[in-house]
Amino acid sequence: MKRLALFFLMLTASIGWAVAQNRTITGTVTSGEDKEPVMFANVVVEGNTSIGTTTDVDGKFTLSVPASAKKLTFSYVGLKTISVPITKVMNVVMTTDDQTLDQVVVVGYGSGQKLSTISGSMARVSGEQIAEKPVANVMDALQGKVAGMSVMTTSGDPNAVASVQIHGAGSLTAGSTPLYIVDGMQTDLATVMAMNSNDIESMNVLMDASSTSIYGARAANGVVIITTKKGKRSDEGLGHITVNAQYGVSQFINKKPYDDMMTGDELLQYQADHGYLKAKDKTDLLKKLNEKAKNENEKEAWPFTPLFDVDDYNPADYNFDWLDFLMGRKAPTYNADLSFSGGSNRTQYYISMGTLSQEGLTRGRNSFTRYNGRVSVDSKVKDWLKVGANLFGAYTTQYTSSFEGNSYVNEGPFGALVQPRYFTPYDENGELRRYWYLTQVGEAAVFQDVRDEYLSSVANGYQANIAGYAELTPIQGLIIKTQAGLDLTHSTSSRHLLPGAYWRTDQRGWRSERRGLTNLFTWTNTAEYRTSFADQHKLTFLLGQEWVQSRSDIIAAYANGLEHPEFMLLGSGSTQPEDLELPDQSKGGYNYLSFFGRVNYSFDNYLHLDLSLRSDASSRFGADNQTALFYSVGATYDIYRAHLEHVKWLNTLRLRASWGTTGNSSIPTLAFYPHLSRVNYSGIFGLYAASIGNPNLGWEKQSNLNVGVDFDAFDNRLHTVTNVYHRITDDMLMSVPLPYISGFASRYENVGSMTNTGIDLTVSYDIVRTRDWNVYASAVLNYNHEKITKLFYDLEEYKMPSYGLVYKTGEAEQFLVAEYAGVNPETGKQRWYVPDENGNISEDRVTENYEEDKLLRASGKKLRAPFNGGFSMGASWKGLALDIDWAFNVGKWIMNNDRYFTENMSRDFLDNNKNRKVLDAWTPENTNTDVPKFGEQIAFDSRLLENASFLRLKNVRLSYALPSQWFEKIGVISGVRVYVTGRNLLTFTKFSGFDPEAGYNMAMNSYPNTRQYVGGLQITF
Fold this sequence. Notes:
The chain is mostly beta strands. Helix content is 10%, strand content 48%.
């Protein structure tokens, strides 16, 4: 008992002694910039981070510290971390940390560079700007975000991939898409599309030779480096869990072209006035349309119900909304993902999984579905050894629309335009007509949803990206790294038509199967050494070797004459000779072997020089031309750090310049090689000369000069980046037409040259920046001047009438059209200007005879727009934020093929609906018009070539992060954020079609981009 009493006495004394040794410290933390309190700043005892707290919303804190503690350390994102001697009451002022703005970014091989030391042209987009966009297409989120990068989403199909170009097109017929690198491994847009945007930490876009030449042959068109999220260290070793969920709806973006078409009653009157079906008036025309449909249905042995109630004609009943019928779905989008991240001082991890489902607007099957997962682990096994692995996998299912580019009158926006509105697809009982005769094309057809009962066409894809690395640091400053990875794509395409498709002459079924396996293996080895001396000189040496190998194997098989819907596999097909088709198989591949090096030198943190060299060997060229050497030199002079640090309002003034070369080998793998291919002639196997080849084929070479200025001021509120570039392409890889006597149509040769010269501007300004408020505005702009300087055979001009395009030296690739001269007021006939031998036109050279070979001329309307960019603005107050993004494209032109049908005055086009513009056609009483008289067939001339420049409200996002103190008592949830997003809400354009962005050089039944509304929720644990 005495011992127990003594124990409690000693325990009480110890507790009292311990309490006596602690001190309670109070204080306030404010910002030196705006004198506002800094809330949620970290306050810890120096040397003992387990004792600490955070400031409250008023910047105040209270902390009990041991008597032995000497200093407290204060830290906050964007402010300098400071240690301050402890006093009983502390008033701490924290200042802006300029070093946090000087981030280390990945610009090639090695451990990265600080932004302030990079001599080249580079743009960085954070993961926050990419995440939560309501599309499967990740690159779409970059539209209008990067000066110098043109991103165009040319289709609203959920499966569409964005078209991306950096500083224009560097080649006319070879590839012009950038190189994509994900966590150090080469990949393509298909894999990027399969990624979850919430897994992306950042995207770095490299645009000049100083940045890209280290990638050599593959980097002629720029490089997009994608860095995925990694786990972050935690002193407690605890992880973070994040859940994201979205639901949205897509709808048709623009109905104006449809509203400009005739109503059913207007078309009936127009057709009757011009003697369609020899009708006397509208009532007589309705009767004749009924009779024609009845006769055609009887030919097909289809049941028939009258299309019209002629005795009870009411104009209001004959104005069916075909656009709503064919493209009017409110298509849903679902997106959800879950991630786990964390780590200790030795090992960090990031694990995520997600799913996305996006449906299209069409009546038929049209959707994109994705399931994806990612695992990233990095571990410091020893102080001198670090290893890591990245595993990514995705499974996609795609139902792609089939109407784009086709004049289908029962599908797509074009079908909505040309279908007469006095028709309705429903019978008198409100049931969809399953037997439908299309008078416009004189054949039977069914609507998409009926067709899909018989026809199935689905593509499935399996993507896997497996990479691992080991990084050794045998001595201080030396990093030896080996990294290997495999990018694997297994694609399947399965199509079948069930027997009994009553609209077909042969009502038996068929099946086709296609399997493709593509693998891209990359193995990279680098040694990087960093050293410094005399406290002013810093040197980094990098040596590397890389091996890239790609292999593909594609096989396809077919079966015809399937007669039972329960037996639809390939083996159930007919064996009759007329039904048999041989299976098809193709294999391909290419290799690259590369050696490279880079030297970076810095003097006193204001002068930076870099030199890179790379040797590439490619299997795409003959033995004598496989290897090429590429190089770059660059310099950065930090004028602010060298001379102007005393200027209070100035934060950054840097001058950058670089020059270098890159190569392009994006051509078919056997373009240099003369080879044979098989042919089956009357069932007999044979061979034919498929390619003449070109053993002298070599690299397309590009040289790039870039000069840039970085300017930041007013406590880093104003941030500007300016880059001027001149890009020269020589020995251009072009598909050159051959004389017919050769027996070959064309072959690739190193001929021709072109230039791209332009300027990139990036400006951002923090209008208000306080503890609670932040208001900002930013803009990016690119101007690119493209010029062809040399063509094959020393031609000054090469016309391509089938594409409506022309190459012309001294100018950009442009549209080739006949110039419309209006209507002859005396005759109502069309007229065109006749160009002279130099392509010039004048009022005294016109003709009423359309002869294509005499009238086609270079229009001066460029294929690629010279101006593109965007601007953003936003504001936040505490947890509430509003962000608005606009994108624009100026100088874009497109041939509106739809108008050829809706404005054609020929009698052959009288059966389809018409734009009201034709009501202003020439007549003896109406001579002052540019619409020719009835009976004239229009041509693909300058009338149809339209200015498709646009300004688009790309994204609007309103979000609210609930106050974190709401969840302190719960202890499980650490944060909740809700948001709503609108995409493509407004578009300003002169283009008369549905979407100025859809289509490349021609709009023909294009699938327009959609307007989307999305709501989302993010919860962190």
